[in-house]
Amino acid sequence: MGLWVQLPAVTFVSALVSTPHPTAGGRHDPLLVLDGYENDGIRLKCFSERLLSEVQVLWTDGRGDNITATPLTTGTTTATASSSVLLKPGAGNSASCKIIDKLLRTSTESSVVIAAEEQKTFENANQKMLAEIERIRQQLEFCRARSNAVNITLDENCKHPSLMVKEKNRVRSSSQAEIPPEAVVLATEGFSGKKHYWEVEVGNKSEWGLGVLGEEMRNTLRTVTVDPLSKENTFSLWFSKGEYSFTGGTDIKYHKVCSVVGVFLDLELNQLSFFDAEEKYLLKRLSLERSGTLYPFFSPGADGKWLGVRPVMEKAFPSL
């Protein structure tokens, strides 16, 4: 299915920024044109009369350093020569274009100073464009993950005794007294290959944990259900006191509290990704070092509120 996205409007300027003037012999200094914003720089073009064929162009920035330019092109039907450069941030706010006539051993030169307002306009437009590109990239990645949605059911025979499971898709603590935060319930389904995505409603819960663990740990939890989970033996995301943490103790600074978390298990690339499913934003991607089957697990914490595995809507590509 095709996916259409719209980039932000960016105003491209084609403005005269230097005025050529006649020199001795009727020749003109090069004409410099601000041609627009490109990648992370400003594209400048230089045009000059080409009365003779033996000409070359030399570009320099505000510090007098040479700038790499496009190869010099010469008109086939007109007596002109042209070249362009991409003026990068940090190269100063001025540039010069010198056309050298090798046969006559003469040169003509024009310079341009880009106003601070123009630079700021460019920087703002560039930042907005990069932010929009990143937003679209994130959403495309989320859509690809979500297209691998699977059904997940909770295994009432593999849960901590302090937890209560309802309708095989919701879990909460049965009592708030002395419940370890690592008390979990496992999914019935296990995965040993391909790609799998599921979503978890955490709402406004103050603490929770999500992730996957190996078959050996699962068998241990089924046998000794009174013991809480050992985080070190999982690939997981945890939320507590307004902060996120991941396997290995790494933290992230995320501006929002997720209400729905998307979990994407890619066993073709051996990666586990967590998304803010409402914002379609990647929270973290973990590399998996594992063998055998992996099982999703869910920890509702001790706040007494429900954590639920929700069915993923059939629409694989939500609106961007």
Topology:
Blueprint: E1 15-16, E2 31-38, E3 41-49, E4 55-61, E5 73-74, E6 80-87, E7 94-101, E8 106-113, H1 116-146, E9 154-159, E10 163-166, E11 170-173, E12 185-187, E13 195-201, E14 207-214, H2 215-223, E15 234-240, E16 243-246, E17 251-252, E18 260-266, E19 271-276, E20 281-287, E21 294-299, E22 307-310
Antiparallel strand pairs: 1-2, 2-3, 3-6, 4-7, 5-6, 7-8, 9-12, 10-11, 11-22, 12-21, 13-18, 13-22, 14-15, 14-21, 15-16, 16-17, 18-19, 19-20
Overview features:
single chain; mainly beta; 12% helix; 40% strand; 2 helices; 7-stranded antiparallel beta sheet; elongated; 320 residues; disordered C terminus
Name the shape in a single word: elongated
How would a crystallographer describe the biggest sheet?
7 strands, antiparallel
Report the C-alpha radius of gyration, rounded. 30 Å
Given the structure, what is the number of helices?
A: 2
Summarize this entry quickly.
By secondary structure, this protein is mainly beta. It has helices at 116-146, 215-223, and strands spanning 15-16, 31-38, 41-49, 55-61, 73-74, 80-87, 94-101, 106-113, 154-159, 163-166, 170-173, 185-187, 195-201, 207-214, 234-240, 243-246, 251-252, 260-266, 271-276, 281-287, 294-299, 307-310.
